[in-house]
Every structure is written in structure tokens, then in C-alpha cells.
Design brief:
The protein is α/β, with parallel strands linked by helices and 237 residues long. The protein contains ten helices and 13 strands.
Length: 237
Amino acid sequence: MHIVVPLAGPDFERADGRVKAEAEVDGAPLLRQTLDTRAWLRSDRASQCNLTFILRDSPVSRRFGEGPLNAWYPKARRVFLSGETQGAALSALAGVALTRSTSEPLCIDLADIQYVSTFEPRRLFADRPDVGAAALTFSSNKPAYSYLRTDETGDVVEAAEKRVISQNASAGTYFFASSTVYLSALAHNLANVDRVAYNGLFYVCPLFNGVLASGLRVVLERAENVRDIKFDAGGPI
């Protein structure tokens, strides 16, 4: 499974010359507090070879990418973008382009929420060809998150950014059956900007609308012990 971690957002770099991923939480950097607890990464350290980080090509992010990030994940790939994109869904394309197989599952992990999960995405997609995507969710009603709405049978029917359309808040980790599914969903969203973009930006969660439009199903998996450590310091890190 190819794992892409977008770290190129406008709020990633801080005024003090550090980046959000370096902010300490319980004595460890935020990025390591989240990413190192992911079961699909922790169970197979070789999967670092399938890990790609997306950063901006700026002095601050270059220092972080070539220093701490390279030391933490030496086998991972790092891609530096020369400018800002129109959202994480587009930034992630730089990582999707490096996939070794267009049929392997794809994970887009924003890596800023800590949780516990035993979900096995590779098994899901192998066993369920009707499923195109999956999301880890928890219960919330705060508009800071993205949400997924289900019908009376439990099937996902809509995804929205910063709009509380259900109690199923996204934990910020998204799985797609393949990069082909991801690209098809992105193309759908680009053609429906008014309906799916938020403040003119393309976020990852609304891509599930494109997956649904293609006739594939989207399933939800519960994340346990959710801790949004971006706010542990009493405000956004």
C-alpha cells in the first residue's frame, strides 16, 4: 500500500521557523506521535519504502525535510513542491505519481490526529471489489472536521468538508482501492467545484463523492481513543 502524507498546507510552517510536525506532544514530535502508531505502518517497517511526504520547497520545509524528517523516516520519499496547490487533494498528486503499481491500495494520511485502529485496508479491498474507498471516523459535531453521511442502511451517501452533515467525523486518514480510483474521484470533483470545494480548496474527504459517483461504495471504520493532538497546547499547533 502506498501511503502519502501531505505536509504542504499554508498552516504547516510556523512563525518561529519550525513546522507543525515538530511541535512536541508528550515529549515527542506531533508527526511521530500520530504516524508511528498507525497499525499498517508499524506492523511492517519495510512499508517505509512505500511512504511519501509532500512538502513545500521553502527554506523552513527544506530544513525539516532534509533534517528531522529524513532522520525519522530514512527510507521514505520526499517531494518538494515549488508553490502552493489548491488543497491537499491536489498536493497528494505528487505522491500518487510515484506509486509503483496503479492497482495497489492508496492511503492519504493527514497525520495530525492520533487514534487506535486495527483496520486492515488491504484485506478490505482484496475481499470487496465493490468498495472503492474507506475512512476512519469518530463521533463529533465540531465544524473543524470533515464528515460522512450514511443512509438508513449504513451506506455512505455524502462527504463534506467543515460541514456537520452527520456525527461521523473523519480522523484524517483516507483509503482508496487504487490510485486509479483516486484519480477518477479527483477528476469528478474538479468538474464539480461549486459542490465539493471548500473556500476554493480541494480537500481529501470530499473525494469520496467522486468515488460514489463512479458506482463504488465507501465504507466507514471506527477509530478508537481519538485524540486531536493539534489542539493539545490549548489552541491549534
